[in-house]
Design brief:
By secondary structure, the chain is α+β, with helices and mostly antiparallel strands. Helices cover 20% and strands 19% of the residues. A four-stranded mixed β-sheet has the order 1-2-3-4, with no helix packed on it. The longest helix is centred in the C-terminal third of the chain and has 14 residues. The radius of gyration is 12 Å and the shape is globular.
């Protein structure tokens, strides 16, 4: 298992074939789209079959968030996710 980030940053955690991405309270900062994943704490994630996104309850998705999520899916090898969205308990 690997976890990274503090405060209002993105937190990635990988365990087995699952990757959890916890989003900051105010969504993804556009500057993160250009940063390498190694700087953001994304662990090596070969063999990921499930991506869980944990977001604040009153937060709304925007185009920057969607673009960042697409980058994560491509990096994680989730080109054909089995389920597009599911709530995190």
């Amino acid at each position: 298992m690997h976890a990274a980030a503090k405060g209002s940053e993105i937190v990635f955690r990988a365990q087995g074939s699952e990757l959890l991405m916890r989003l900051p309270e105010h969504g993804i900062d556009p500057s993160l789209l250009a940063r390498p994943f190694t700087e953001l704490g994304l662990p090596p994630c070969g063999g990921v079959s499930t991506l869980r996104v944990e977001a604040p309850g009153d937060w709304r998705w925007g185009s920057v968030d969607a673009a960042f999520l697409a980058r994560v899916l491509l990096r994680a090898g989730c080109s054909r996710p089995r389920r597009a969205a599911a709530p995190v308990p």
